[in-house]
Amino acid sequence: MLYTERDRERIWWRGPGGRREVVADTPRGVWHSGETGMMSILAARDFATTRHFFTCHGAVEPDGHDIRVVLWELNEQATRARRITPIVEGLPTQTGRHGGCRLRYGVRGALYVGTGDATVGTNPQDLTSGGGKVLRVRPRTGEGWPGSGSAA
Hints:
Layout: E1 2-5, E2 10-14, E3 20-25, E4 30-31, E5 38-43, H1 47-50, E6 52-61, E7 64-74, E8 81-91, E9 101-105, E10 111-115, E11 134-137
Antiparallel strand pairs: 1-2, 2-3, 4-6, 5-6, 6-7, 7-8, 9-10, 10-11
């Protein structure tokens, strides 16, 4: 089982027999404030062979903050997780309020990303914003799922 600690910016693994291990502790670039931090986590459908999983978390860059979906890999010993690449970046956040994110699989393997509105009431109706939406993307690339429209 993989799970996160939002404010402590940690990813944990819990294995058979109850053994627990912090596999990522305050990864570089992760940001938490208010309701934003290390949020959703989802094992890749082929986790048994690739050891890949996704997180959705707040991130800090030199030019500001955002919410992003990141692809990770857990090592064979389940002692360390390595960040591979962000697949969705630039989801809105300001102070961390309403910066939520939830990851789930949809039909035919689409990755659904439920996003917060960043306390901006116009984000859900704004087709140029990824805030306040359920985005449907390709799990490995973050590209829009065919027929998904053009939002963020």
